[in-house]
């Protein structure tokens, strides 16, 4: 959608300012300002319906206008008398564009008061108007983003602040019952009594030097 202020914009003031406080007040208002808004769509094929568009997030807005910087002030069309040097102003705009840092675009009394970047800047000179510089400017609204480190996202395992999941298996344990033997425990838990040695090797510190002497209540770690 494009909204156009088609009437002559005589009562507005267009300013552009960077974070350091450098401010540009456009001396000559454009005849129209275009604001473009789009919404992105994702298309899915559905049986018997064909393709269906599902709306996604709104795209970044574009604001554009054209005007000129006069070499000399003329009260019939200039907003103020102490106008900036056209060529120096073009250089400042080019610098802002190359820096790719957000600028504050304000167009009172409209509701345009947004952070933008300069996405396109074209200038032209006319033979019968020496010193004047004509321009076309396009801005895109600034969308702040920040790349998080692995530490900030929990080591890369999830969203910020979430602990990384522990993927190691939790070992199974068995509490020795009266009358048990390692062979019987291996048969019950591992399906093979001959694997009793694996249980003993994992639990030597609990059982002691004699594998035949196990006591009720001992917690034995089972092989995985």
TrEMBL record:
InterPro entries: Bact_Kbp (IPR052196), LysM (IPR018392), LysM_dom_sf (IPR036779). Gene3D superfamilies: LysM domain. Pfam families: LysM. Residues 172-222 form the LysM domain. This is Terminase. SMART domains: LysM.
